[in-house]
Amino acid sequence: MSRIELRSALPLILFAWLLLRVEGSIHDYAGVRFVGKGNAFVIHGGSEGIYSSRPTYNATGAPANGDAFIRFEKIKFQRPREFSNFSSGLIQAVVFEVDDRETIGGSAYGGQRAICCTADLAKLGVCTQGEIIHRPSTKNPDWPQVFGVSFKEDKLVATLQPKSIEITETGMYNLYFIHCDPKLKDVTLRGITIWKNPTGYLPGRMAPLMNFYGIMSLAFVILGIFWFSQNARFWREVLPLQNCVTLVITLGMFEMAFWYFDYAQFNRTGVRPTGITIWAVTFGTVKRTVARLIILMVSMGYGVVRPTLGGLTSKVVMLGVTFVMASEVLELVENVGAVSDLSGKARLFLVLPVAILDAFFILWIFTSLSATLTKLQILTAFSEFDTNDIGQAKRMMAKLDIYRKFTNALAVAVIVSVGWICYELYFKSRDVYNEQWQNAWIIPAFWQVLSFSLLCVICALWAPSQNSTRYAYSDDGSEEFDKDDTLTLIKPSPMPKDVRGGPETRSLHGSNSVPSEDVEEEKTE
Question: What DSSP character marks residue 237?
């Protein structure tokens, strides 16, 4: 192959590598080291919600054949050569359901709880010194499942025999590899475990999300059909802001489709396609950023009461770029390679920037909305005073009405968001051990539903129509006013007829001088 051909093939090779570089319900352990926990050395092998096998349990290879199991394959422990001149104690695999967590470990005379059997506990005859303390479950005496392997003298590798554990009770299952010998602290683990639910390889906590994203994909398609048909009917009347809404709907359709295919592929094969996950995360991040920028620009009155953002353009763009970068990193850490049914693994230093930027968006949006509403109220009052232009007054009233509805929708969304955040904090504080895993999917699903609902409201308010131009900015001077006057005016109230007809009012309205605020914006641009 020539160099030119090789270079042209590099993008395809890179894309194929992204698709094949996967992790999934097949948990892969590649040289994982034990970590000291109390008097034991531990490796967390995984945690997943698993539904019980259906009555028609069978061992066929179909992903949705009704069986549920945890299977151990090619599990090997390797120790350094300098520590191979002795026979070791057991390295044990412990599988237990979260409700049976108290059956692992114990303490002598009510002292500090230990995982490994101590000399005091061994004297009481409740365990064997150097092994894991465990007791049968009160619900099922065959659980927890504990089995292991030991190193023979001069052997560098100890291989755990292949084993498959059938799941007969629905629950959150945890796997730990544990040993109690300090001489084995440098041992590494290699191999895989396969976790399967009756309907496929998706972990129980993620399984409902596949159907959810399928429904959301259909919802975006329906919204897209409505919006695109309106665009086609009134293409001459389409405003720039409406084109931005089209972009958000398109990004949402791609995001939901990629999430659905991500979970469907994961469920069918047991491996998670990293490439599809990255695309889903990227489309979602860009969609959320564009949606926030659109709401911010609408709140500032862009295209409605002002032709440009003026000197604020660079600040808006900077905020958008910062948000998309912070969100992308957070979502990639949260989702790429996520296979266990545990809470998000993102650290505080990744969550905090996104939360701060979101708060800044909300503050800026409502501050701008307040200023825009005030401006519209003033312009509406001026238009009502001018009896020569009834059409202008109607346009101002229409703009004011749509902005009031938009403000109410945003206020409701923020209130609901704050309430849901409080519930989410309460849920997570009460669910330390992920015992409520069957309901946990509702938390991420809610945010998707809320953002989609707000998008539907925006589509309803700003849908393309034959009267779309009445919401557009008019450059005839009738929508402009001086910034200094704005600071002194208050919300207008009904005025007597003699005052409305006064010369000062008509002079103020009839002035076509360029306002200082717009001049500053044009200079800055």
Answer: G
